[in-house]
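Quick log. Single chain, no ligands specified.
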Amino acid sequence: METFDQVLEQYTPMIYSVMKKAKIYKNHEHYRHCATVALWEAWRKYDPTYGPFAPFAYRTMLTTIYREMSKENQYAAHYASYEKDTLTFLAHQKQRKSGESGCPDLFLELAALVTKEEMELLMDIYYYRYTFEELEKKYGVTAHAIRKRRDRLMKRLREKLV
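-> predicted structure:
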């Protein structure tokens, strides 16, 4: 069997093919590294009874990239930081901009800027701290729709307040 350096040189075009197949559009270096590690693992585990090496390596690299993408998507969904989107951050920005020294009653100020339904959503998310699953039941829409509504609302408030 060849050395891994020879295998890597021979299968480098396949790495880029796998990345294209997986539709990688960001973090190219990370996924290229994952595919290279997967190629090394395939090279190490390969047994000629499995058949030709190329399809075995291709499937191993593609599976590894898909697993890594899945892990990153789960992390982004569960651990994404919304610190800059909180109402507290917006209040501090407005306070800094206007030079006020006290803490204004932000919810009363926001009530003048948003509709009654939007204010209820803001109160549910930031004051009462309902989870998106609880809000799904309350509003009768998906959690994705609630997040999208919150994001649009926060963008509009950011433009008005900051």
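The mean pLDDT is 83.
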